[in-house]
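ugh ok so i messed up the first submission bc i forgot one of the chains. this is the corrected input, ALL of the components this time, i swear. 1316 residues overall. if the numbers dont match what u have on ur side tell me asap before i send this to the collaborators (the ones from the other lab, u know who)
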Amino acid sequence: MNGNEEEETIFEIGAVVPRRNVKEEDEADCVQVLIDEFRKVGLIAERVVGVTDEFIKLAAPLETLGRAATELQMRKRTHIGIDLPFQWEEVEAFVRQPAGSLFSWCERFRCYCHLIYGIANKSRSAVTLKFDGKIFHWEVEEYLLQKLESEKIVKQVFPLHDERKRKKLLKSWALHWWSFTYQPIDEIYLYYGPKIAIYFAFLGKYTRWMLFPAAFGLTLQLVDFGSLQLFMLPAFFIVVILWAVMFSQFWKRTNSAILARWPISYAVADDPGYKIPSEEGSSLQPPMELIKEWEADKAKGKKAFQRYEWFGPLMRFRNDAIIILSIFCLQLPFELAYAHLYEVIGSDVVKFALTAVYLITIQYFTRLGGKVSVKLIKYENNENTEKRADSLVYKVFGLYFMQSYIGIFYHALLHRNILTLRQVLIQRLIVSEVLENLLENSIPYLKYSYKKYRVRNKKKSEKGASKGKIQFTSRVEKEYLKPSYSASIGEELEDGLFDDFLELALQFGTIMMFACAFPLAFTFAALNNLMEIRTDALKLLVMYRRPVPRPAATIGAWLNIFQFLIVMSICTNCAFLVWLYDQEGKWRIEPGLAAILVMEHVLLLIKFGFSRFVPEEPAWVRVNRTKNTTHAQDMCSKQLLRTISGGEKAFGVVRKLE
Amino acid sequence: MNGNEEEETIFEIGAVVPRRNVKEEDEADCVQVLIDEFRKVGLIAERVVGVTDEFIKLAAPLETLGRAATELQMRKRTHIGIDLPFQWEEVEAFVRQPAGSLFSWCERFRCYCHLIYGIANKSRSAVTLKFDGKIFHWEVEEYLLQKLESEKIVKQVFPLHDERKRKKLLKSWALHWWSFTYQPIDEIYLYYGPKIAIYFAFLGKYTRWMLFPAAFGLTLQLVDFGSLQLFMLPAFFIVVILWAVMFSQFWKRTNSAILARWPISYAVADDPGYKIPSEEGSSLQPPMELIKEWEADKAKGKKAFQRYEWFGPLMRFRNDAIIILSIFCLQLPFELAYAHLYEVIGSDVVKFALTAVYLITIQYFTRLGGKVSVKLIKYENNENTEKRADSLVYKVFGLYFMQSYIGIFYHALLHRNILTLRQVLIQRLIVSEVLENLLENSIPYLKYSYKKYRVRNKKKSEKGASKGKIQFTSRVEKEYLKPSYSASIGEELEDGLFDDFLELALQFGTIMMFACAFPLAFTFAALNNLMEIRTDALKLLVMYRRPVPRPAATIGAWLNIFQFLIVMSICTNCAFLVWLYDQEGKWRIEPGLAAILVMEHVLLLIKFGFSRFVPEEPAWVRVNRTKNTTHAQDMCSKQLLRTISGGEKAFGVVRKLE
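and heres the new structure output, hopefully the right one now
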C-alpha cells in the first residue's frame, strides 16, 4: 500500500491575485491571510510572483483530502460493492483507483473545492484585511474566498496541469501518431477524469469501425461493377445502416467494459463533484421537502411525487415544443431562403457575399438559441446537472441540425441531380472538417498569444519601454494565460466536449443521411477522424488549461442523437433510392418502390430489435461485478448481518412487522 | 414481531402413497420410516387415509424453515438493501413480507423441497424397507424420497391449498363480481407467489385501460358522423395505437410499483426456487468452469466469456431461424391452403368437415412445434429457466401467430370486402373468447369428475357393489384428484399461465391489427376480459391444485410480444387504410397515400420514442428504494466499514494497490 503518488507535492490548484506594489510582509495582508488559512486546513501553499499577477499554488497531502472527503460524506465504492460515505479511519474498506491512488481526480478536485471554499472566520470578531492599501473586514462566519472573489482580489481559481504526467501523456498519446486509433484511455481517465476519457474512447472506437465502410465506399468509387452497379448503392446503404446499428450497440458494451476498470461510484451522475459549493444551493436540487412529505404520509407523498415527476417532463416537453416550433417558424424559412437564393443567384461574388451574411447571421442565431435554451432549461426540474446538460444538447442540436442539413435537402429536392449534390457534400465536408479542425486548433493559440501580448504591453506601458521582451518564467502564469476548455454555447452547463461531440455528430449525420448519394464521404470522415484524435489530444494537453473534471460515465445525450440520426438516415436514404429509381418523378408504387418500402421497414425493425439481441453489458463485466460483490459480501456476511440487526436495534428503525 | 401465521399448523405440502391392505404398525414399513424421517428434520407430518390412496400432509415450524434456508444459503433482502445469505441466528437483519411473515411462499416451498428431498441415509448400513410385502434396501447416502419415487411408492408430491386463505380469497377475489377490475394483488402474491399475482395485475390493468377504446369503438359503431365518417377510422387508429403504446409503458411502471411492495430478492430470476433439487444438476447452470478460468487468467477468461456469450445468442438465432423457416415452409402453405379452400368451397357441410380436419391437424401441428421448440431450447445455453421459458414463448407464439391471423389476412387480401372481413373477425372473436372461456373452465372440472369417477369405479370393483356412493371425505384427497395448473405446451418450462397469456396476446393481436376494420372488437374484448378476471380466479381457486410457485417478477416475454404486436398493427392498419382509400387497386402514391406513409412513420417514431419520455420506474419507487437503502446503510456505515476492512484483512483478499 504505497501512497507515493500522493506524498509527492504536486500542485493541482492555482489561484490568481493581482501583483501588488507593496512587497513588505504585512500581517493583515489579505493574500498572506489567505495563504495562512490554506495552510491551517492542511494544504501546502506556495506563492509565485508572475509578470503582472501573483499566484498561489496549492497541493494537498492524502490525509487532508481524506479528512475533507470524510466531512463531505463523499460516497465511495467499498470492497463489498456498495457505496458508503467515506471515512478516513476506515480507508482500507474503499476501492482504489487503477493506478493505486485512493481518490480519483474528480474526487480530489471536489475535496480541494470543499477545503478552500470552506474557510470561514471562526473567531469571535471580524478580521481586518488589507489589500494594496484598501481595507475591508472579514466578518464572522463569512467565507474568505467568496469574499475575496467578490472584492475582485482573487481573480480566478483553476486546476493546474501536472507537468510530469502531462509530458508523459504528450509522448504516449498526442504525439503517438503511428498508433492510429490506439489511446491510453486509463491514463487519460486518471489525468482528465471520466468524461474526457470516455469521449476519446468513443472517438477511437468510432474511427476504428469507420475504416470498414470507408474501404467499401472507396471500392465503390474506384471499381466499375458493370451490370451490378444498380444494386451496389442499395447494398452499400444496407451495409452502412447495419454497421451503424451495430456500432451504437457495441459502443455501449465497450463503455461498460471501460467503466468496469474504473471504480466510479454508482451515484456518479448525481454527484455534484465539479461544482463549487457556493453554487449548490440552487433550486434544482432533489426535492427534500418531497421526501419529508413522503415520510410523513405515504399516500399523500406518493401523489406529491407523481405531481413532481410529471411536472418535470411536462416542462421539458413544453420547452422542447417551444424550441422546435421556433426552429420551424424562424430558422427553417431563413435557411430555405438562403438555400433558395444561393441556388438562384448566378454571380459568384454575390454568392460569396450572401454566404458571408448568412454565416454571421447564423452565428448570432445559434448563440441566441443557445441562450434561450439555457434559460428554458432553468425552469425544468431536471434531476442533476448532467440531465440539464443533456437537455441543452438536445435543444441546441436541433438548431445545428437545421443549419447543417436543410441546404443539402433543399438542393437534393430542387435539382434532383446526383452530381451537383455530391459537389455540395464535398464542399460541406471539406469546409466543416478541414477548416473547423484548423480553426479549433488555431483559435486557442491565437487567444493565448493575444493574452500574452496584452500582458506584455501593459507591463511595458507601466515600466516604460525598457528591457526589451518580457519572459513568462513561471509555469502557472503561462497556464493562467491559456484559454479554458469551454463550450461555445451554454458555458454554465457544458465544457469544451460539447463542440467536439457536435462536430462528430454533424459529421455522422452528413455521411449517414446521404450515404447513397456519396459513399466516398466515409473515407473522408475516417481520414479526418484519424487526424482528430491526435489534434484533440494536442489541444487538450498543450493549448488549454487543465479542464475541471466532470464525473459523467457515458456519452449521454450524444448516443441518443447518433441513434436518431441512424433512424433518419434509413428514411432519407430510402427516399433517395426511390427518387433515384423513379426518374420520371411520378411517385408511383411499382415493384421497385414496394421493395424499398419493405427494405425500409426491415431495417427499422433491425434498428430497434438489435439492442434486444446484444446485451449492453458484456458477460465478463457482469460476472466480474457480481462475483466480486457477492464474494466480498459472503466473506463478511456474518459480521454484516450482525451489524445490520445491531444497527436496526440501536437506531430503532420501526419496521412493518405486522 | 409475531410469527403467528407460521406458528399455526398449516399443512402446505402433500405426498401420496397407495393405500395398503396391511394396516398394522410395522417398524420397517417404508411409509412409517418416511414419516419418521420427516419428523426428524423438524417437519410436522400427518397421515390421512383416503379412498384408494394414503396421504402424508406436511407442515413446518418457522425455525425448521429458517434452518433449511440457512443450509441453502438462500439469498434474502436485508434492511440495508443488499441480498445476503440467510442466517437463522441473524433473522432480525432480513426484510419481512408485507403480511409480516419471514418467508414468502416461494421461499417456503424451496425450503420444503430442500428438507424432504434432502433426507439421506446417514447411518453406516443400508436400511431394509417394506411396502405391501415388497422388500427393498435404502442404501447408505441414498436419498429416501427419490428412492421411493423411483420405486413408484410415492406417487406425487404437491403443494396443498390453505383452506382458510383460499376461502378468504374466494370471497374477496373470485366472487367479488361487482368490483369489476379490482383485485387483492397483495393477497394473491402471498398465496400464489409473484408470477401469478403479476399476471392478474396485468389482466386487471389491461382491462381497465381497455374500457376507453371500447367506449370509442362503440361510439363509432352507433353514431353516424356524416361527412366526418371518412376521418373517423384514421382517428380511431391513431388513438388506439397511442393507447397501446402508453399502456405498455405504463404497465412497466405499475409493475415496478407493485414490486416495490414485495421484498423480492434482486437475484429472483436466477433463483431456482421452484425446482426440485434432483433436477438441478442440468448442464444449463451458469458456467462455473468459466468463472474459474477467469480467476486463473483474466485475459484468457475474458475471451472464454466472450465465446460463451456469443455462443448462446448464436444458438438461439439458429433455433429461431429453424422455427421461422419451418413455419414459413410448412405451416404457411398449410394455412393458406385451408384459407383458400374455405373461401372457395360453397357447401356448408364440406366447409364444416374441412374445418374439423383443419382443427385436428393444427392441434397436432402445434403440439409437434412445441415439442421441437423444447428440444431446440435444450441446446441453447440460456442463463436460467425463466430465460428458457421466454425463448419457448417466442417460438411457440410464432406458430400461434400464423394459425390465428393468416386466415384473416388471406380473407382481407382476397375479398377486399370490409363487411365479410368483419364477419370473419366476429366469428373469430366469439369462437376464441366465448368458447375458449367455456372450455378452459369446463375441461378441468370434467377431468376432476372423471378422475373421481374412475377412483370410485375402481373402489367399487374391488369391494363389490356395496354401500352405494363413495364419499371423498378428506380435503387432501380431493385436491389430489384435481388437475394441476400446467401449460398445454412445454410443460417442463411453463405453467398454466402460458395458456392464459397466450389467449390475451392473441386477443390483443386480433383487436389491434384489425382495429380499423372492426372497432367494435374492443368492446367485445373488454367485456370478455371483465369475465376472464373472475373466471381465471375461480379456476385457480376451485378447479386446480395449488400451483407450484414461480419467482418471475415481470411478465417477461409477453410484454415484448405485445410490443411486437403494436408495431405490426401500425403497419397492417396503414396497409388497410391505403387499401380502403384506394378502391381501384392501382396502388398509386397520391397525397392520401403519402399522408398515410407519413402517419405510419410518425406513429413508429412515437412507439419507439415514448419509452424515453416515461421512465419505467415511478419516481416515488426509486426514491423510496434508494432512500431506504442509503438510510439503513448510513446508519450502520461505521460498523459496516469496520466489517469490510476487517473482512478484507481476515480473509486476505489481495487487492491491486500498486
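quick check: The CA atoms of residues 318 and 376 of chain A lie 9 Å apart. that seems consistent at least. Chain A has three domains: 4-160, 178-284+382-617, 627-658.
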